[in-house]
Design a protein that fits this description.
It contains 5 helices and 7 strands. By secondary structure, it is α/β, with parallel strands linked by helices.
Amino acid sequence: MLGGAVCDERTGRQAYEVGRRIALGGAVLVCGGGGGVMSEAARGAAGEGGRTVGILPAADAAGSPPNPHVELPIFTGLGQARNLVVVLSAAAAIAVGGGWGTLSEIALALKHRIPVVTLSSWRLALPDGRAEPLLTEARDPVHAVELALAAAGGVGR
């Protein structure tokens, strides 16, 4: 799950529903462990009894406290470089909203051939204008999770 540490109410609702649907689909929610989109997605997953993992930037909870919905916090001490750990821990990623950090996670995922589904997030194309085949735009949270779960089944992770 990719998204900003701060989000508006609409984006928060979308993230919550994505998290809920991830749990209902039997998948583990991996996120950056912080607030905003990450917290809402983890709250949605935890509310359905799903597993939640937070990959945090600091070396301990004093430096980056996990949101209360993260079941397994992993403290990396890597700062923003932890974005690579987040994406490499996933078979597919869903980006909801987000800023520059989310864009970096999308780029890292695609560079490592991990499928990305976007929802109210960045719209990207290759420099020659062609669509990136591993990047799909979803119309709503249900569609986003359906696309991601299908893509995850196809990558052998």
